[in-house]
Amino acid sequence: MREIIEVEHLVKKFGDLIAVDDVSFKVVEGEIFGFLGPNGAGKTTTINILCTLMRPTAGRASLNGFDVVRQQNEVRRSLGLVFQDPSLDIKLSALQNLEFHAGVYNIPRSVSRERIEEVLKMLDLWDRRKDVVQHFSGGMRRRLEIGRGLLHYPKVLFLDEPTLGLDPQTRFHIWNYIIELRKRENITIFLTTHYMDEATVADRIAIIDHGKIIALDTPDALKRMVGGDIVTLKAENAEAAVEEIRHHYNIEAQRGSEGIFFEVQNGEEFIPTLVNNFKSGLYSISVRRPTLDDVFMKLTGREIREEEGGAAVMKKQWAMRQARGGGTRFH
Amino acid sequence: MNNLRGVYIVWYRDLLRFWRDRARLISSFIMPFLFLVIFGTGIASSVMGRAGDGDFDYIQFMYPGIIGMVVLFTSIMTGVSVVWDREFGFLKEVLVAPISRTSVAIGKALGGATIATIQGIFMLVFIPFAHVSMTVGEAFLLIALMFVFSLSLTSMGLFIASRIKSMEAFQVVVQMVLFPLFFLSPAMFPTQFLPAWLGTAVKFNPVSYGIDSLRQVVLGSQESAMFGIELFGYRMPIVLDIAVVALFGIIMGTLAIRSFRVQE
Fold first, then answer.
1. Fewer CB within 10 A of the terminal residue: chain B, N end or C end?
2. How far is A71 from chain B (nearest CA, A)?
3. Which CATH superfamily is A228-289 part of?
4. How many percent of chain B have pLDDT more than 70?
């Protein structure tokens, strides 16, 4: 098992803003490596550095053994990239987009003709190859971009938020293609997402927040960090309910977008006890296994999709954490 | 040779897009047609016709100016179209590819120049209407001049595009760069009667020399002598005209390439 990506003490600053803050990690050949974090956490910036689109402020990174600053062309040849935002020429046909790619990557014509056919068939786009991309649906465009990223037999395929802006059904299909493709192409996949459920396809996940990697492990190991089941409930009076749970069970419940939630061992057995003794009104209650959302919550004290709340929310969260005596306390 | 194929494919894509864009193909005839037939006839039959000495044929005069206009507008627009590529994300696909930024810039410049030259060649259909005649050799010389002229201008468009980051800025560029370059040139009117301040501005405009070179070919250097640009009391010969255009192109091309190579 060879390390295909090596990142050491990578830093990227934009003026005063530190987008990537002393990040180090390694990606093993053949794995699906996930980069998980809220928008603005530094995922895309890290990818841009690895793909030679940006220069790091400090630190070093290599891909397929080539340095991303000094051996740019070798690095570029070794990677395929599906950008977060669309990057097709919508005025051209699917075939012409791929032919352009084959041209700039200097794939010999004899090879590219077969390869284009193979890729288009794998992604179920062969019948539409002569259609102008303008008339493609969002899912078809994404598939074409994935196919284009694969065309030149890269060692690493970067997928930056590959399902962003797609409906759930299309997202599901795209992931099936990605999993299938990994089997067939023997390729390393580096993906970023802020959809937690999607990150579980990865073999290993790095959770990134404010430019730092705060955890790196397999999805199962990360989930074990949470340590119990997650109980979510909606109550008539949220304040009272939180207080009651604290009082009776010595559990510090939190309020999130889905209601009040807390972590407990053996959730199924706990629920009847709770419901029978609960004094204030209850609307609903549910129990589930921990997800990566919960892991992120545990590590940072916030939900991953709160990023729109901006500084005010973060400040509040920080203040709350301090008030509770530092660190999030799920007992 | 990798980079050569890169230049080719970047060039080829621009041509493919041009060919597919039928609306643009058709509209490329309409503007010059309106200028020559309506504007030209209007001016010729009123102002020029009365003020002139009778020998002066305004439509014949403006015809090379219209060719220059088509080349100017198409070149700059195509060069600046890189802004579109950035906006729609396609530029990233090019910039992450293992070809040098220099070949991307060269491919783009050649693509824009080829399209502008093709549009210029379309203008030759108006020859009978403009009361001019040309030998085949002159036509080829004219095409060669159009290409050099448009290569310079596309390079300028590319340089501008590499500096502006938004679609809004694109409109500003059209107003602030394209129109001044066009109006401060001998495209639509002879410049020797202009007041000094305006005449000086025309002489500082590289587009003036491009249009003058086209006019010298279309009208013949004798016929066009009275409309020519004079520098230090000397009438600019066609060779010097094109040297000015080429020098401007080299400067703009160098700036564009340098600007393309900058990495965040």
1. N
2. 11
3. ACT domain (3.30.70.260)
4. 94
